[in-house]
Amino acid sequence: MFENxxxxxxxxxxxxxxxxxxxxxxxYIKNYGEEKAAxxxxxxxxxFDKLHGRGDKFNKTVTIAAIKVVDxxxxxxxxxxxxxxxxxxxxLKTAFKELLRTHYxxxxxxxxxxxxxxxxxxxxxxP
Length: 127
Prior knowledge:
Layout: H1 2-8, H2 18-52, H3 60-76, H4 82-88, H5 91-94, H6 96-101, H7 112-116
Helix pairs in contact: 1-2, 2-3
């Protein structure tokens, strides 16, 4: 099971793609709700990054913003599974950075502050 393999660290890092990140967000939102999903995914991705790298790739703002964006689309979705969900909202996969740029004027992808703490949007608040 994807979630278990990720959490125990047995998922190869090469398989933790952008789509896999979205899938994990979808699973956590469905299982735990948005607030708990944000805390859990932050903890798990940071741990995965330390286990499989130098621990310098994790970005708290991007991770929590991803949960908030995915949660917004989950609320609009008629899909029962992730594959259908991502087909229903392909922009999550193909234009994710652009979606986040509607919320942030600054570059949260390279910001040292954004890596360690969640920065609230300065353009458009999350719903």
